[in-house]
Amino acid sequence: MADIIQLLPDHVANQIAAGEVVQRPASVVKELLENAIDAEGDSIKLIIKDAGKTLVQVIDNGKGMSTTDARLSFERHATSKIRTAEDLFQLHTKGFRGEALASIAAIAHVELKTKQEHDDVGNVIEIEGSKVVAQQVVVTPKGTSVSVKNLFFNIPARRNFLKSDAVELRHVIDEFHRVALAHPNISFALYNNGSETFNLPVSNFRQRIVNIFGNKTNEKLVPVDENTEVLKISGFVGKPEFAKKTRGEQYFFVNNRFIKSAYLNHAVSSAFDGLLKNGTHPSYFLNLEVNPQTIDINIHPTKTEIKFDDEHTLYALLRSAVKHSLGQFNIAPVLDFDRDPNLDTPYSYKNTDTQVPKIEVDRSFNPFKSDSKFSGKQTTVFKPTPSNWDSLYVGLESKGNESQHDFSEVHFESEEQTASMFENENEVQQVNTTYQIHNKYIVSTIKSGMLVIDQHRAHQRILYEDFLKNMTIKEATSQQLLFPLQLHFSKQDIDIINQLKDDLEHTGFVFSNVKEEFIDITGVPVGVPESEVSIILEQLISDVENEVPDSNFSATDLLAKSMAKSLAIKTGQSLQKDEQEHLVNKLFACKEPNVSPTNRTTFITMSVDELDKKFI
């Protein structure tokens, strides 16, 4: 029998390795930025075009490479940081596998320009699909410039899996943030399609956070500082009142390297117990310094997951440090009782001294005199007692006996009604009897048996079709706010709002001002409470960034889905009878009542025969 096992060709092996290291343009950005940091540069520029699909270029002013090093850097497992296996547990640099450049060169057109400080000229190398096309001398400034063009040009299937430019750009910006936050001692700049998106000067850690996420972030930060033999913690956590629905601003850095750790994230979340609303997540920017020998970075190709020797100790220390900082800065839950404003001191008497009241008694006062005057400061005049006063009580007993059991005129106070979920209550049709179970499901009778409706998903479908209709015909009612509502966002979030501004206005939003870090809203859609506006926009931005559901859907459809999800009545909300029936009627007036906007079942039916079988 012939041998069937054979060695893979180098170009195939490189493409397989590229599948582990390079998943999207953001992966290239991460590897090139880390190489630039290892080159000891203090100024790094990132230039991208078409969200990195056409071009990713990183320029640094580091120490550069010699001609031989430049050529060797594109070989597999070629690295300057590892000599023995023990070196893997003494890592103080970023890239150490020696796979990044080789993997990138296997699936893109790469151009490398580099020059060392003492050299007169530098070198340029051009590689296409692992093949060196050209290598020659070139005039270039000190440092290294790596240009990666036409990513996945020779693997079109991988290129087809990339998302839209907006989503890929968001991933690139996320990687840029992670590297820039870990190294505030280096200046970073990001240029997207020829325009400057970020220009971050050298600063301290707090200022770097503010430069990235906006000036409003400064007042949200609470410092965390703890130094032990095992672990050194520094950084900031966000105040509980600024917690968000999304997990966007959560950063762990271990020895200046960004990591993801659900275990450590739980330690921070548990420190916020009792301080956060349900469904919100705290923000944190925490630097952890540990002995390199106690961690293993080499367990994941992207090096974002780390294995710790003693996770339980780190968990306890981290939780205690965050809890101590929150307590030290008087951030603790308070009891908020309802206060009667009528008991407040009037403004005109606020600074006056209190006086002891004086009581004067007129000892000569006789209440039986027909005309008596009170001789104090305040004079009271008593009217004469009528001569026929006793006739006032004639017939009182008989009247009382007659009306003892007459309750025809008795009126009862009704309980306070909460706001209705729909505008015109006259539209409600009393068709079927409905019941609400566990404030989650609405049960209604039908001819063949029983109908069970999920109230949250059903209302999502109703709102989704309403919003879609308003945005399509561009007619929507807006309720004006008494005072403009100012909301603060980061620069990239403002860019997303600008892209969706026209569609948002068709749903009823009115924007009076859109600046780099804040927006002013003067009108909102009818039925949207002012307190929900920021939550709706945050959820919308998150959905657009993560492209929920997918790039095949239009921005209008995505906006309608996101707003319907945010504004739909929630599970646990009690509904009145008329609201339940109105919900049922509106649902079955929809074009697709069977599923929610996210294609989940809105109702189920159970026939009488199926019910009978349950009792057999």
Record keyword descriptors for this entry:
616 residues; alpha+beta; Heat Shock Protein 90; Ribosomal Protein S8, Chain: A, domain 1; eight-stranded mixed sheet; five-stranded mixed sheet
Task: Kindly describe this structure.
By secondary structure, this protein is an alpha+beta fold. It has three domains: 191 residues, 2-Layer Sandwich (Heat Shock Protein 90); 116 residues, Ribosomal Protein S5, domain 2 (2-Layer Sandwich), CATH 3.30.230.10; 179 residues, 2-Layer Sandwich (Ribosomal Protein S8, Chain: A, domain 1). It has 16 helices and 22 strands. The strands form five sheets. Strands 5-4-3-6-2-1-7-8 form an eight-stranded mixed β-sheet. A five-stranded mixed β-sheet has the order 9-10-13-11-12, sandwiched between helices. A hairpin with a 2-residue loop joins strand 11 and strand 12. Helix 1 packs across helix 4 and helix 8 runs parallel beside helix 9. The longest helix has 19 residues. About 1% of the residues have low confidence.
Strands of the widest sheet, in order across it, are 5-4-3-6-2-1-7-8
Principal-axis shape equals extended
Overall mean pLDDT score?
78
How would you sum up the major sheet? Answer: 8 strands, mixed
* Total count of domains: 3
User: Based on the structure, what is the oligomeric state of the protein chains?
Assistant: single chain
CATH architecture of the largest domain: 2-Layer Sandwich
Distance between the termini: 64 Å
Low-confidence stretches: 423-431
**Can you tell me the CATH class of the largest domain?**
Alpha Beta
- Count of individual beta strands: 22
Strand content: 15-25%
Helix content: 25-40%
